[in-house]
């Protein structure tokens, strides 16, 4: 995911500052937030952020080099080893989470400007980004009073035992570009509640939300070095993963990148949580109304222009109902309004980058070449000559071994796969290296539960695209390691310590 490195623009022969050239609602795009301060970068390297709907420059940010990343890690390490943060009570840290939540809620309009231009999401959805982050931060703040960070245990030897859950240490949090604010919240909130310090590494394509979080952290007086924010490309990001001063990496992104991160963490036995790719199946049972299923799946796939790791893109249906479902999906997808994400009438915006559209178009060509039936879409919408738009696309008669059935496309492309019966449909759904999400479409809730138990997936929904970070989110197989969200999402940021005493301590 390379980022463009550009020279600073000029006005009247003089160099523009980043503050002068940016169109983004950010105050310090030319700096990094390290050690509680906005510090100057070690070089003049810049990253261009291009508006996905217009292909025009949106803003530029400083690009972190090796010295900048090392400085951020040093600040986090010092804050954990010597600062007050890990020694505060969970309740005290929870108050900072609530303040951060309130501050992000106030920046909702700014998030509403950043997210559509960076990633193509609809403005109406983006406006709720601050509120979504607030819900996550508040949920973890609530756990301060209910989670058993220390509980008594009966030892086999000794008089009294304690099971203690302590912060894992310095956390490197690496987020992707598709839903940065939600993903920042789901990593930063549990890490901070646990008592960890964090180096947040934003994606070059969508760094704005990380800057917003840093600005709010500064405003609420978060202790120095507890949260540090930089933007870097892959080479410098790898230095964060390799650094022995970093105790844990939490990463959301592609399975290919996740394999690399897992191998680097394995070299030094660093902890890691990996939320990776998906190729999620919707299993349509024979009692489900086809028109309802088609409408539900089409609407869900328009979310974030299909740039969702848990999208239901493999539609498995009995062979006898295959053609009917393909026709219904093609009809509903063909009616989707694609266009400006700031237009209230738009139902699907652009893809995030030219590279991403090239990827999607490449997979559409593979689908045609490998014999699938192109039932809808497949090209670029008419009249949209600027911006990285693509038509919502439906393939029928897809072979489950083909590229469009097995590889993550990360765009609005649905593959309908025929199955001989229910058992075969479940086998097809499970025949993938991934296991992030799935759904069962049936009017019988008991049957849905039975099929759900047979699907090898971290989440299984019923009659819809459903995920719930309030419970837990993560994948089986090559869709990742660990879980994010809810109580389960707190565990990866804690180390378990057993304490065995010869007497009963005060308070027990």
TrEMBL record:
<feature type="domain" description="Aldehyde dehydrogenase">
    <location>
        <begin position="38"/>
        <end position="499"/>
    </location>
</feature>
<dbReference type="InterPro" id="IPR016163">
    <property type="entry name" value="Ald_DH_C"/>
</dbReference>
<comment type="similarity">
    <text>Belongs to the aldehyde dehydrogenase family.</text>
</comment>
<feature type="active site">
    <location>
        <position position="275"/>
    </location>
</feature>
<dbReference type="Pfam" id="PF00171">
    <property type="entry name" value="Aldedh"/>
</dbReference>
<dbReference type="InterPro" id="IPR016162">
    <property type="entry name" value="Ald_DH_N"/>
</dbReference>
<dbReference type="InterPro" id="IPR016161">
    <property type="entry name" value="Ald_DH/histidinol_DH"/>
</dbReference>
<dbReference type="InterPro" id="IPR015590">
    <property type="entry name" value="Aldehyde_DH_dom"/>
</dbReference>
<dbReference type="InterPro" id="IPR029510">
    <property type="entry name" value="Ald_DH_CS_GLU"/>
</dbReference>
<keyword id="KW-0560">Oxidoreductase</keyword>
<protein>
    <submittedName>
        <fullName>Aldehyde dehydrogenase</fullName>
    </submittedName>
</protein>
